[in-house]
Structure formats: structure tokens, C-alpha cells
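--- STAGE predict ---
source: upstream dedup step, 1 unique chain passed
mode: sequence only
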Amino acid sequence: MIRPVRATALAAAAVSAALVVTACGSGSGKSTDDGAQGQAAPAAGAQDLNPHPAEDLKQGGVHKVSIQQWINQYNPNQTDGTQGDAAAITALVEPDLFTFDAKGVPHSNPDYLASAKVVSTDPQVVSYELNPKARWSDGKPLGVADFEAQWKALSGKDKGFQVASTSGYDQIAKVEQGKDEHEVRVTFATPFADWQMLFDPLLPASLNANPDSFNKSWAGQVPVTGNAWKVGRYDRTAKTITLVPDPAWWGEKPKLDKYIFWAMDSKARTDAYLNKELDEAPASTPEAYQRLKGDQGTDIRIGARWDQVTLSMNGARGPLQDVKARQAVALGVDREALAKVAGKDLPFRPKVVNNHFFMPNQEGYRDNAGSFGKRDVARAKKLLDEAGWKEEGAGKPRSKDGKPLALEYVMPADAVGLAEDQAKLTQQMLGEIGIKVDLRKVPGDDYFDRYVHRGNYDLTQFRQVDRIYRSSSYQDYRQPDGDNAFTNYGRVSSPEVDRLMVEASRTTDAAKQVALYNEADAKVWELGHSVPLYQRPQIIAIRKGLANTGAPGLGDENSVRIGWLK
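--- STAGE serialize ---
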């Protein structure tokens, strides 16, 4: 199953949106015309996959898709493995214990689980009944050793493991064998509401054996697999990763012969699709949509994904270490203007997001932006005054102690069109309150690994996607632990936000959980952690002959059913 990329980041400038998404469900598969422009974004649960039964599909064929960079780390739980394209590939080749329906509700995947359920609430105990046929590519059966090793690696107790998130794993008391080798029992020290989030994907014990194997053994490769697909070839020169069906797979066989991922610049993706070198391409930016919508033999498929475009602020260096400076940035940016630019010529307008944890079309959403919800130049200037940054005259940056107020906005070198336009707009807006913004383009393959993940920026724009399990967001806002910032790349946090998010993850009362996340969200706004901009449209251009793939929204695509119509 291709699943949403849970709790990862994607470059806003260049994203292979369709690769990292999901699900089975209904959709028209018909092109969308401009008559829909200005309509509301699709409701949660909306998806468009061109669904067809297996008997309608040809056996064989190749599906060629794009990714935004060469993959250097395939361990999705390691700090450098959180980039979305890497996690999407890993999800195709590793055990996917739960699949998601159109509403984002998890269900046990029978290829791996006969059942998974809470068998005790005090303490909370989860029983996993494993499919006896499920095996790793090295021949070993899935079992308690894999669960135990993953728990210990991600518990946060051994700081040698460079983990992206400990959420949920740090609440486990023990992992043990159940009645036989096919049952695993996980006992929690404190309740964990999003328990289905854990062990998904399940990874082999060999990866999690020790810090060295965890941090390095999956760098640039996937040594052990356990799904319908395996890696057939890595071609660094051509920048392609080719997946092929695994003959040892015990479930339904894939329809396709090959699934090819091709790393390329965003500016090349639309041309590659129009030249029939790719079978799908993102059409979520105005320039891409206008070029792709009228292509003969192309469907435009639309879904509702958890997909937030975010302006990240680095509170660990320079002027943005001061909360008042961060708040001034939040007030200096006109989010409505950025969303309007993003929605120009699209079939619907992106909606500004006033919540870090919920999308506007999602149950539980509440506007917590308060006084930071609208651009306020006068208040932004007042905050900078209070922070000691003095005005130097029209068109000049403010200064303090003889130094100008200057921030570095880092972006991938292939950022063109919408991404570049928005960067320049942000530069202009912040210039109006006395902040000089220098735009710096860096190599696309280095953008996450050397800049975002390392905090080598003052401002940057990327996408946060698929926070369907709300506790997965904890890693984005939690307090760093020494050198490990988890995915809180700007290192902005507080004990109060930590407390509220941990409490939310430990309550099984859905209404109380929503209230706690909204309370935490209000505090996150006050911290000036980051600026949620808008919900990014999920709009995919795809060949009409491709079935069971496209825009799955909150759900999962069944990768073995993706194929070409007869």
C-alpha cells in the first residue's frame, strides 16, 4: 500500500505530491475545468483515483513518477530520513501494518495482521496477531524481536539513536511475546491514543539493533524488505530507483512490472510529463496546472490531503532568537496574499490555515491565531522597537548595536515560479517593517540534509504533510534534547506546549484531546514557532489509462492494484 507520508516535510518549491499519498475509494477521473475556480477546497475524505477492479487491468507495464531529490537516508525514523519521498519509497517495500480509508481512519492490513486491538485499558495493552505468512526478504518471519528492537531504538533512552520522534514509543513499558510466536503484546506505562501510529512501518530488528546500524546501515540503500515490492536497482547516474515485484510476496501480486522513481528538479517535472517521460506530475501550482490541464490523454485528479505550507523560523540563531522578532515576522507576512498567489488559475482557492494541528476542512479545526491572524504592520514595527531594532529610514533595514536586521531565506536551487514568487513577496513584505531578507538558493539534494535538518537558515518555506495522527506533530514542536531537535528544526519550544501535547497523546477522550491540541496551538502561535500559510491543493495530472492511483487525500493507494487499463 502506498500510504501518506506520516509526519514528514517536503520542499514547498518542488514536491512529487502523488507519490507520497494514498487510498482506495471513488472519484470521477474527469478533468476539472476553470469554471470551478474560486470554489471551496475539497472536503476531508475527497479523493480521485480512477478506481477499477483488478480484472480491468493489464498484467505488466511500468509506472514512472518523479521525486525531488536523490535519497540519502531510507530509515524513516532517523533524523535525516524524514524527507517525504524517502518515506514514500520505504512504505512500498516495508511492512505496512495499517491502511487508511478515505477519512483517514486506520484499519488492520490483513497481509500482516490477523488482528490488532486493545485487550486491556488499565494498563493499556495492545495485542498484534501477525499473519504467519509474513516474512522479511532475508527469510526471517516478522515477530516480537522486530517490535522490541523498534521500541527500544525509538524510546529515547539511548541518545546514540538519532531519532526523528519518540512519540508513543516513550510511553511503552514492555514488548513481549503473546500466546505463541505470532502474537506480540505491547504494554503501555501510560495510555497512548494513537497506538496504531506505532510500528507502522515495521522495520527489521537488524536495522534497530544498535545506534550504528540505525543511523548508517540504511544510508542510500534498503538492505531488508518485507512487502510486495523490493528495490531492483539504484542508478545514481540516472538518478532513478527502480522497484520490482518481490517473487517471495505472499499477498496479491502487483499488476505493474516496474515502479520507477526519478529524482529531478521541479522545473523539469512538467516538461518530463508532457514529453511522456513521466506518468504523473503535480499540478498544484498555477504554472503547472495551466500547462497540464489541457494535455490530451491527461486526467486532473483532486483530493483533500493534510498538507500545510509553512514558513519556518529558526529561533536558535540570529535575530529570531527573540520571540518579539519572530512575532513581528508572523505579523509582517500577508498570508492571504500568499494564498491568493498560490491559487491563481487553479480550480479552487487554497485556504489560509489558522491552526498548526488541524486543516480548515477537518473536524476539530479552530482558529487559534488570535491577534496573529491578520497582517499588522504597525504592531510588527512596535514589536521590533521593543526588541531594540531601531528604524533607519525608509527602505533601510533596522539596526541594533551597529548591525542591520537581516535574515537569510533558504530555498532549493530549482525553486522557480510559485516558490520564487512567494519568496520575493515575503522579502518585500518583511522589508516594509524594516527586516532585510536575503534569498539564498542551495542545491536541491542538500536542501533538507544540510540546511533544514541542520537549522542552517533563518527563514524557509516547506510543506508539512499527513499529520493525520495528531500525536505525530509532537516532534515538530517539542523541546530539543541536546543535539537532537527531532523535527523542530527552528528549535522554538516551551515546557507548556510540551505538557499539553503529551497530555493530549495520553487521553483517549476524543473531545478532550481536540481541546488540548487547540490549547497547545494557541501557545504555539504566541511562541512565534512558525507561520502556517495555507492548505496546499492536492491536484495531480495523470495518464487517463492509469487506474487506482492519483489523488487519495487522507487515504491509501493499494500499490498492487495500480495498473494500466486493458
